[in-house]
Design goal:
- The protein is of the alpha/beta class.
- It has two domains: 125 residues, 3-Layer(aba) Sandwich (Rossmann fold), CATH 3.40.50; 153 residues, Rossmann fold.
- Helices cover 39% and strands 19% of the residues.
- The protein contains eleven helices and 14 strands.
- Strands 1, 2, 3, 4, 5, 6, 7 and 13 form an eight-stranded mixed beta sheet that branches. Strands 9-8-10-11-12-14 form a six-stranded mixed beta sheet, with helices on both faces.
- The N and C termini lie far apart (51 Å).
- Pfam families: Bmp.
- This is BMP family protein.
- Belongs to the BMP lipoprotein family.
């Protein structure tokens, strides 16, 4: 469903004589000079986003929409969005927005990369932004935004490795996209770096929307001994949180702050604020200050890291996480990007400098 805040007043169907009379009356009321007629208002800028899920999913899609809202508030641009768009319609909806002449079109997810590359040359007046593109995009009207999410998931692993009492950390993902795998592997490497004896179980359900599958996967990990679970399954992640709430097992939120979903078990949220990132870029584009190129945000920024902690998370654990975050931000430690399953298994645990 396309949603727009644009309203039009059309005189095309009114009789010509009436239109002439109306224009004469307007000129008389305004003083009738040519100068007034020449001072047309500035055309309204527009920004739009295409979302594969709902703006109320308390995760990935809601983040994107909040970013769009910020663009509108900061620039006065008219905003439009399409939510719950199935994959079969992505191409058509993207083309539709571009044909309408939107100034900025945000494609919310790596799945849109090829669509952006297809239409950017055809619609040079629309600036295409791809959030979490599968590769850097750098053209006059084509920009990719990368959130180095694997750095943030590594920090989640550092916390999990300290928090676990059973020595078993769980991880439930939705679709096994390369960047989802990279985050799961980053989490496992982080857990082992904090606790070399920790074991991490990782499972992908194959769906970012099936909460039942996600819940069952989490329950299976809990039954096998996991006492802390990381999740990345978009809206399906709520099923993981529900399983942990029922079992009294600690769990990580993902994306935006999810502590309110189950405050008794959500220990913190892996912050991936792509909304803030795309808002920053979108505002610069509309204000004419964007320098171009692909853009990357890591734990040195507010776009990635860990959010607020549950009150009972020990301060000493928080301090350790902060030491790792600062070392990564300063470039003293590089967290590898591991896009294949079990890639972290062959790596030695990392250590602080």
């Amino acid at each position: 469903m396309l949603t727009s805040r644009r309203f039009r007043l059309s005189l095309l169907r009114l009789p010509l004589s009436f239109c002439s009379l109306l224009i004469s009356l307007l000129l008389s009321a305004c003083g009738g000079g040519d100068d007034e007629m020449d001072s047309d208002p500035e055309p309204t800028q527009t920004a739009a986003i295409i979302l594969p899920g709902a703006i109320s999913d308390q995760g990935w899609n809601q983040m994107g929409y909040l970013g769009l809202e910020k663009i509108g508030k900061e620039t006065g641009a008219e905003i439009r969005f399409a939510e719950n768009v199935p994959a079969a319609n992505w191409d058509r909806v993207a083309r539709s927005f571009a044909e309408e002449g939107v100034d900025v079109l945000i494609l919310h997810g790596l799945e849109f990369t090829e669509i952006a590359e297809k239409y950017a040359p055809q619609f040079p007046d629309t600036h295409f932004i791809v959030n979490n593109s599968i590769r850097p995009l750098d053209d006059k009207n084509l920009t990719s935004i990368e959130i180095r999410t694997w750095e943030a998931s590594f920090l989640a692993g550092i916390l999990a490795g300290q928090m676990t009492e059973s020595g078993i950390c769980g991880a439930v993902g939705g679709n096994d996209y390369p960047l989802f795998i990279a985050q799961a592997e980053g989490y496992r490497l982080g857990a082992r770096s904090a606790n070399p004896e920790a074991k991490t179980q990782i499972v992908f359900t194959g769906s970012n929307f099936d909460t039942i599958k996600a819940k069952e996967a989490a329950q299976a990990q809990i039954e096998s001994g996991a006492d802390i679970i990381w999740q990345l399954a978009n809206s399906a992640g709520l099923g993981v949180i529900e399983a942990c709430r029922e079992a009294g097992v600690d769990v990580f939120g993902w994306g935006i702050d999810q502590r309110h979903v189950a405050p008794e078990v959500v220990i913190t949220t892996q912050k991936v604020d792509v909304g803030a990132a795309c808002a920053e870029v979108g505002i610069q584009i509309l204000q004419g200050t964007f320098e171009g190129g692909s853009v990357s945000f890591g734990v040195e920024s507010e776009a990635a890291g860990l959010g607020e902690y549950r009150e009972d998370v020990p301060q000493e654990y928080r301090d350790v996480v902060e030491k790792w975050r600062q070392a990564i931000a300063d470039g003293l430690i590089e967290i590898p990007l591991m896009k294949t399953r079990d890639a972290s298994e062959g790596l030695e645990p990392l250590s602080l400098p």
